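Fold this sequence, please.
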Amino acid sequence: MTDWTKIYYFSLFVIFWYFVAINFVNTVILTLGIFKVKRRENEVSLEDCTSILHSESLPKITFILPAYNESRSIIASIESLLHLTYRYKEIIIINDGSTDETLEVLKNFLDLVSIPQYFEPHLPTQRIRGVYQSEKYKEIFVIDKENGKKFDALNAGINACETQFFFTIDADTGIDGPSFEKIVRPIFSHPNLIALGATVRVLNGCTLEFNRITTLNFPQRYIPAMQSLEYLRAFI
């Protein structure tokens, strides 16, 4: 047996046991995750947050939407947030130097008026070109800035955020109303909570009315189907 043959078989040996180890670890994580999800489902079933969600003492939550060339989808995302039953919310949209008509679409839909910059740049960002507030929806603000990629736009939104809690979502994303009510429940039951998250689902094949998914189906086309599988794998 030559040296190259030995190296070849040794490489196969290493690769085989690498995949065995990776799959073993993933299996353990998946098993633990199943028990955790089941326990959380039991906790949610015992919680009654209906009265809390309609309370006058709810904390205000800010939604931060970074947007780059999202003129075709951003209005639907805004409408999904406006239809949420959570009463005390603020929406900050960051136009990250879009080269399409994103800012014009926002101005027309929201009746934006220019206001002074009301926040300090605690986090570094590209230059802020303007700050606007909606005349139609007073809880919506728009920051127009030079392009600095998504993280830079998020920094600008966090700089402008004045609430204890904030959610970041993409400008081509909608939030299912009942799902959001489940997301915010830990805020009330776990006072030391500092972060939470949720899964993402591809809407291809689903029926959406306002901000509620009425029909849930798996995408039929190849690329959306693969994207759905990737989301499922990532959030396990």
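Residues 1-46 form one domain. The chain has a mean pLDDT of 83.
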